[in-house]
Amino acid sequence: MSDTYLNLVNSGLTKEIAKKLGLPRPAVLRRFDPSKPLVPGPLLVLGKGESADALASVLLSWQQDVRRHATPKEKLGAILMVLDEVMSPEDLSSVSLDAGASLRDLASGGRIVTVSRPASEAQDPAAAAARQGVEGTLRSLAHELRGGATANGIVLANGTGATAPSVAAALRFLLSGRSAYVNGQFITVGSAAGELPAEWTASLAAKTAVVTGAARGIGAAIARVLHREGANVIVVDVPAAGEQLAAVANEIRGTALQVDITRDDAADRILAHASERYGRLDIVIHNAGITRDKLLANMDASRWDSVIAVNIASQLKMNERFLASEAFSKQGRIVSLASTSGIAGNRGQTNYAASKAGIIGMVRATAPLLEPRGGSINAVAPGFIETDMTARMPALTRQVARRLSSLQQGGQPVDVAETIAFLASDGAAGVNGQVLRVCGQNMVGA
Ligand code: NAD
After folding, report:
1. 274-286 pLDDT tens trace
2. Of 262, 273, 287, best ligand 1 pocket probe by most atoms within 8 Å of the beta carbon
């Protein structure tokens, strides 16, 4: 699936014409490429406290070129705004204004990352105002960036220090090309749980993962990225998609399991397959999903019920089995596909939004069950992603949907897949019960 407009405004004569006419020119995003550096230039770390020093040390340990003060006219790969010690709104100014003064020097595909504390855990109103203020600044700044640069934040729950493993894992993810389509979002690190990989490009080495709905689209992309990161992958889809499913399994040297996830024995069949072939199951990616769009006034029971059955009821049933099974690793990781429609709602999608909002509820309520065993469950909420699902939208609606984000384009399946691989890694164990949007900062909803 490709975006012809984006291709035209970034190549040859049509690029020049678009420039002259002042048409919007969505940038080609900086995506993961193992042969490229983590960021496209030196990193500027702003902030004076202990966390700023600790994070600068982390970056140095990754052989990054770190600055604590801006050098005029030097192109920067990223700016880190460390604001975890703000106690009143006045405390926001020096780091924010210093970042502002360096924005013109931020390279294409550059990154801004804030580090802050949750307003909900502040002791007094002034501190809560300052912490919440970071959110307002970051989200606005993300709208202002150009050239495919993005701005996202890491929020450290009280009691979690800047040196927690998941802070490093989240920072690395946000700085890298893997977060290309994540913009204007926050990742909360809730604990010091987690273990960093021996190799950052093999973050899932020796793990066994299952991906549902993996015959095509986002699911197939997830299977490819999990495999690239070192996991053994079991791909699941309905029997009707068997041929495509087998092709994906062959490509990633994984195994295919034809099963409809709404069947009562779906989880047991997955567990049995994983135990027989790999002796373990560590990662579950609930990706399979369907749309049956209609205005509620025209909705029939089969449309409503099938969406609920596939998108949420099946996952609730399967999770119960996984959590009760010895075959599912104690430190198991579950990632579910929500949707921005489940956050903001979408015309014609009452059934789909009920199921996807349901995912968010399920993830929040399941997180405390997994935490004591070292496991985690999170949701990823994609915005507009270029797949068969969105190719079915009317052409004009599709064009508009693509431009309705700060990055002025739809995401690629690989963008969702990279975010899922991050959340499925042991480095991200301190991130639990969260919803992370992969939407290019879609203007719809929160
Ligand atoms: P897709 O329609 O291209 O692929 C979905 C896959 O799930 C298909 O291979 C299908 O056969 C499989 N599937 C459907 N019902 C199944 C069942 N009962 N058992 C097993 N497999 C089943 O969809 P996609 O665009 O790749 O979306 C993947 C996920 O991402 C879905 O959960 C979707 O709701 C979510 N999502 C997609 C977008 C987007 O823009 N494409 C946006 C938000 C959320």
Report:
1. 999 999 999 999 9
2. 287
